[in-house]
Design a protein that fits this description.
6-stranded antiparallel β-sheet; globular; disordered N terminus; single chain; alpha+beta
């Protein structure tokens, strides 16, 4: 037998096998960057990134620790020094005064926070901070981050509680290459970092391969790949030009590097949920983080900032973003300062002759009203002293202020005037009311209020020019208006190039019968972006696996595990434990589900959604008395409307009518603006008092003119009373709510 052909094949296969798998680039620290990047390193030193987190010492601590006293709600907190240690005496997790050593400081200006080590690797952030502004600006004092209301030990907002835990809340953004390392088994953290602050590799990625590249002779270096995981555009690569006809700036050479830069910044400068701590600059942001959209109470209906949401989602709303502007067009990425003082940063692209003139701003030169930033980037103060500009770069809309209950830049300055006054002035100046780019406020308000025109306005956003983030936000509401038309629209949004829109479309499809949507949802398990894949897995988790073919089962199991791992990463939070419990329930693993429910209550006994969902789970398990006890336990913690509502439904199922009515009425009274509570209470009382039920429903439908439930209930009860005219009226109203007319 001639073995040579076989040997040649084996030899070829052997030689094709790599001798070693290429190691991932490693973090090497900013000192390795210094020798080549002296200018950038000098700019970075002293920046907010450099000083994001520091060891507490004589150089880093700005606060007064010379036996200073701060009193609030009967608690006298004192700041002092014990030899070379900075100390605080304040109320601990048991409410008693104790001495604590300050281990680290956070930030420098306009405030500085202080951190204390606790057992199990926890680090907690004091809610008494140092105002580092000058005395003339009201600073050089201790102040509370929670000035309103008394916060006692055990509260989630107490400085020893979960919402001021550094490991989860803060660490990922204040240090480089941070790994949380939380163990659900014992509740311990073993959090690590490569560098305590935000250093070079936080934005440029691990640099070991870059160093190897830099050591090569110049003629051996690949100019297209320098060993870094991300190729950020240089300022000299971006050439904004002024269109001679319009006088407006344009960017002819848009590139992927600009989008990559924004996603690097978004990692920290966004309101988001963290899915893992594996992000490397150059990755898709949404493979590691789930960004918040333009929903209440984070934003006003028109997208203006309300809660502490940072910058990213505001910027995505802007015409600036749509035109190709990036963070580094306005900010030096190393000093973090604006590239020019005041309006001069705007004048890099916006011609002063066109915009820095009373013909444009209609104010006295050099006055506050002539300032671009004051009008187009109004300030909101967070954390007591931290004034932050809204980055949606919007045209002021005082004409919408009263209608949408939103602030406007004009009356923020002219505090003695009404928005209507400002709206008239603007209309007089321009012979019209300029609308700007963000024209989705009416739609979002209508959706939140369940108004009759909500669906019509929603399609206006989806079909007209609007930011992708606004389209994504409204798309999530399509399932609340189930029709063939909205079903088709949601399916079309699954093909959007925007990952947020695809994810929101999945949420909308969840409202439709699975038999109509399962094929489309299943296809999204192959989506290239993680937040979309795991949303599809969440929806399909309860699909019986024995109904699937082998390949289908393997795919859904794979992505479901990806979803489970993202929840386990956040297992130190009650929200994640609740989602784990619901996942295990859908997977038919009740013991694991119950364990997750219990863990959520251990982590945060005040978290109301756990009690509601845990009780529902126990009822599904035929454990009625256990469900009742959970609801009673929750009501002792917080007499919340959701708990009274759930308790009322428990009484209904157990045929205790009078107690049910009492509990459902309490829920409706506590939250009169929640349409569902009014609806359920009316349905419960309608059997004996249909006229009173109609009264409740008609009062509710005045606020929620587009609530299908309220309208159909009114139609039904009027029909029972023999009032065909009113029955038909409300039925037609319900039908019209579901119709979009182009």
């Amino acid at each position: 037998m001639n073995c040579l052909p076989l040997l040649r094949v084996l030899l070829t296969l052997y030689l094709s096998i790599p001798l070693s798998i290429a190691a991932a680039p490693e973090h090497i620290g900013q000192q390795a960057c210094l020798s080549c990047h002296v200018k950038e390193h000098q700019q970075w030193q002293g920046s907010h990134h450099d000083l994001a987190m520091q060891v507490a010492n004589e150089q880093s601590v700005l606060g007064d620790f010379n036996k200073a006293i701060f009193s609030k709600d009967g608690i006298k907190t004192s700041f002092f020094k014990n030899k070379n240690r900075f100390m605080v005496n304040t109320d601990g997790p048991d409410g008693k005064l104790q001495d604590y050593a300050i281990s680290y400081v956070f930030g420098v200006y306009p405030l500085q926070q202080y951190m204390v080590k606790f057992p199990q690797g926890k680090i907690q952030v004091l809610d008494i901070a140092w105002d580092s502004r000058t005395k003339s600006k009201g600073g050089q004092r201790w102040f509370s981050l929670h000035p309103d209301g008394e916060i006692k030990a055990g509260d989630v907002l107490h400085w020893t509680g979960p919402n001021l835990n550094w490991n989860y809340m803060c660490a990922d953004c204040h240090s480089t290459h941070l790994k949380k390392n939380y163990s659900q088994k014992d509740g311990n953290y073993k959090t690590t970092w490569d560098e305590i602050n935000v250093s070079c590799e936080a934005c440029h990625g691990p640099a070991s391969e870059h160093i190897s590249w830099a050591k090569l002779p110049a003629d051996k270096r690949n100019s297209q790949a320098n060993g870094l995981t991300i190729q950020l555009a240089k300022a000299t690569d971006r050439h904004w030009v002024i269109n001679a006809k319009t006088g407006k700036p344009e960017l002819p050479n848009k590139d992927a590097a600009a989008q990559a830069e924004i996603q690097v910044c978004a990692k920290c400068h966004s309101r988001r949920a963290q899915l893992d701590d594996d992000f490397v600059p150059g990755d898709d942001f949404r493979d590691h983080y789930l960004p918040s959209l333009l929903t209440a109470p984070l934003y006003y209906p028109d997208g203006q900032v309300k809660d502490e949401v940072y910058v990213y989602a505001s910027f995505l709303q802007s015409r600036m973003y749509a035109a190709g502007v990036t963070c580094s067009d306005c900010h030096n990425p190393h000093t973090l300062a604006r590239k020019a003082e005041g309006d001069k940063v705007c004048q890099q692209c916006h011609l002063p002759a066109k915009y820095q003139t009373p013909k444009h701003h209609h104010h006295q030169p050099d006055s506050a009203g002539a300032n671009c930033i004051a009008c187009h980037m109004p300030v909101t103060v967070y954390m007591g002293v931290d004034a932050r500009n809204d980055h949606s770069f919007r045209i002021p809309r005082p004409d919408l202020a009263e209608q949408l209950a939103i602030p406007d830049a004009c009356t923020t300055c002219h505090k003695d005037q009404q928005s209507s006054w400002a709206a008239k002035a603007i209309k007089k100046w321009y012979s019209k009311s300029p609308h700007g780019y963000q024209q989705f406020g009416q739609a979002l308000q209508a959706l939140e209020q369940q108004r009759a025109d909500a669906l019509q306005l929603t399609y206006g956003v989806l079909l007209d020019e609007a930011p992708d983030i606004a389209k994504a936000t409204v798309a999530g509401y399509l399932g609340a208006y189930p029709s063939r038309q909205t079903l088709m629209t949601a399916m079309q949004k699954l093909r959007s190039s925007d990952a947020d829109s695809r994810r929101q479309a999945l949420q909308a499809l969840q409202a439709f019968p699975l038999k109509h949507t399962i094929a489309q949802i299943y296809a999204m398990l192959n989506d290239p972006v993680k937040i979309v894949r795991i949303e599809a897995a969440r929806i399909l988790a309860a699909v019986p696996r024995d109904s699937l073919e082998t390949q289908q089962k393997e795919l859904i199991d794979k992505v479901t595990e990806e979803y489970r791992q993202s929840l386990l990463f956040a297992a130190d939070r009650p929200e994640a434990q609740l989602s784990l419990a619901q996942l295990y329930r859908d997977l038919g693993q009740p013991d694991k589900a119950e364990a997750a429910f219990k863990q959520a209550l251990i982590l945060q006994p005040q978290f109301i959604p756990v009690y509601v969902n845990y009780a529902n789970f126990l009822q599904q398990q035929q454990k009625e008395q256990a469900a009742f006890k959970i609801l009673q336990q929750g009501l002792k913690v917080n007499p919340d409307a959701a708990l009274y509502h759930s308790l009322g439904l428990w009484y209904v199922r157990n045929k205790e009518t009078e107690k049910a009515l009492k509990a459902l009425k309490k829920a409706a009274e506590l939250e009169p603006d929640t349409a569902n509570y009014q609806y359920v209470y009316a349905v419960a009382i309608a059997e004996k008092q249909p006229k009173y039920a109609i009264k409740i429903l008609e009062k509710a439908v005045q606020k929620h003119t587009g609530s299908i439930e309220l309208l159909m209930a009114l139609s039904s009860y009027y029909q029972q009373l023999g009032d065909q005219e009113n029955s038909l009226k409300y039925r037609k109203q319900a039908e019209s709510v579901l119709q979009y007319k182009p």
